[in-house]
Amino acid sequence: MIKFALRRIALGIMIMVGSSVLIYALILAAPGGPEQKFAENPKYTAEQKAGYLKSLGLDKPVPVQYCRWLGACRRDKDGLDALIGPTGLPVFLPTPLSGINTGILHGELGYSYANGEGVGDSIAQAALPTLILAGLSIVIWLTLAVILGVWTGLKSGSKFDNTVTTFTYVTSTFPTFILGFMLIWIFAVTLGWTPVSGMTDARQFPAFGSELYWQYFGLDPAAALIDLARHLILPVSTLVLISVAGDSRYVRASVIDSMSMEHVRTARAKGLPYRRVIIRHALRTALVPFATNLGLAFPFLFGGALITETIFSWPGVGRLTLLATNGLDYPMLMAILLIASLMVVIGNLISDLLYAILDPRVRL
Amino acid sequence: MKKRAAQPDARAVHRAESPWRQARRRFFAGRQGPLGLAIIGVIFAFILIGPIFAPFNYSDIPNPSEDVFLGRGPSFEHIFGETAQLQLDVYTLVVNGGRSSLLIGFVSAIGSIAIGTLIGIVAGYFGGRLDSFLMRLTDVFLAIPSLFVIIVGARILSALGGTGLQTIVIVFVVFGWMGIARLVRGQVLALREMEFIEAARALGVRPIRIALRHVLPNAIGPVVVSFPFAVGGAIIGEAFISYLGFGVSALTPTWGNMLTNAEDFLLQGNWWWLFFPGLFIVMTSLSVNMIGDALRDSLEPEGRRS
After folding, report:
1. What does pLDDT average to in each consecutive run of 10 residues of chain B (306 residues)?
2. Residue extents of the structural domains in chain B
3. Taking CB atoms and an 8 Å cutoff, what residues of chain B touch A326?
4. Which of B165, B177, B182 is nearest to B249 (CA)?
5. What is B43-299's CATH topology?
6. Distance from C-alpha of A306 to C-alpha of B125, rounded to nearest angstrom
7. Which residue in A268, A280, B76, B301 has the most C-beta neighbors within 10 A?
8. Cα of A78 to nearest chain B Cα, Å
9. Do residues A184 and A310 lie in contact, with contact meaning Cβ atoms separated by under 8 Å?
10. pTM score of the predicted model
């Protein structure tokens, strides 16, 4: 098991290195660069330009630039010396060991072109709203998927099964943004039951996440939570309606499978109560493959709500990504893409390991 | 299907039905597949025949006759209504936009599936170092969430000056081949060990020929199944990206870019601006999903059925 885990982790690190190269290449292909802001300035001579690029280390070959950005090379040395830190250990190790604190490996994500703020701070600030939205949605849709899946699976072929399966199938084929618009039109514009968008009511509360907001929150937590809940209804419904069908279909199919398995039949033949057979015997086998899928929900918590956040002006990571994309804010984009792919790799790792624990055959 | 099963065709006893014929029979015996085909057929007909009835050219910007800032709802002259601001005819936009959207969907799907199949066959059939390299490459591309990288890729290309249909197709192909590659590789790995391939190898057939004539046709099932899903994914993806303004420029209408700004006017009650393109996107997505699911059920009957 440990060998399997180590092999998986090594593979994950390899994939992360690869995706960092891919992200770097993507941004390298993009137009614009640090010298772009002086491009229209006639007083800006070629020597000044060269000096500016040199001061940023942009006169070095691309692999060296990449290595420095990654934090596996020192910025004050060239050649192979750059790989070894002042402590004599390789530079890519954590700061206490290598004595180097530059590059993304040491947490230096850079500064946003748009407002000069630290990229890491901006992302951390946007992560909480996304976590609230995506986390709540994921909990609701997984619960709903298990309930609906088990129920429709046990009553497969019934009218109830047909209705639920058809309804969830149709909503799951809706493009997220169209469904979002539809819900806004029906529930916010026509009926006026919910707010149209945003995370807080701007007439009552300052922007979410600011210090002032938490002060207001402290004054009247109940009102703040109700306000938040009202704003959560539509985006959460969107995500749940889109995603519940796939998982509930999955649970339904495995419930149907496991109900015809021998151990379930034996349990029923022994005369155990129906309810007990279902809960103790059938669901146990039915939900094991589902549990391993949970690891795949991990990246969703960071970037899964991109479209929904855009439609509902939710101040999370998705919206931050779009703002950065729109403004070609490269440091921000690189950091977001890197963190997003790190989440995917970790999620896959969790799911693989869970699977290996639950089903020993895959370790071979 | 039930009737045929009850009275087996006498000829079927002598001549086994080919797998493709079986699949076709199963496809048309179900409800999902034919219904999906019917819906997409209506959409195609609308897009091909519709422009004849479009009274306006989509590039004509009408002189705003009155000082109406908001759009106007469906009327006899404008059956799908008019947009706000420029007061464009929504019917004209939908008919012309559908052509671009479907074109993007089909070309992207064909492109990404062709590349994915090629990589999958090469990796699976030739194996060894090439296989591990190609599969690690696939892992790397899969590690970055596709929506993020597609949006960023489309934005970068549009900043470089590409705002046409081909730009978005390139992005979808470059970041859309991985799933197919994995799928095909798995199929090929299983096929490679089968007797008929070994027989072909023993007869001295060249590897390229084995890959193309013996492996490919037998590995094609999942590829066919994934085609409608890829078309739907590209159409929806294009719609979202163009709606954001990173995709196809408004000079070429698509179902996505005609929605740009539309939601601002939803609050003022301009529902038709969103409703008609939205209806077509939803119907297309629903029909291709239905076709895909029906194909899966008929091509892989032993697989898990929903």
Report:
1. 48 64 82 88 86 68 60 69 71 83 92 92 86 91 88 85 81 90 88 86 86 82 88 89 81 81 73 83 90 84 46
2. 43-299
3. 155, 244-246
4. B165
5. MetI-like fold (1.10.3720)
6. 38
7. A268
8. 29
9. no
10. 0.83
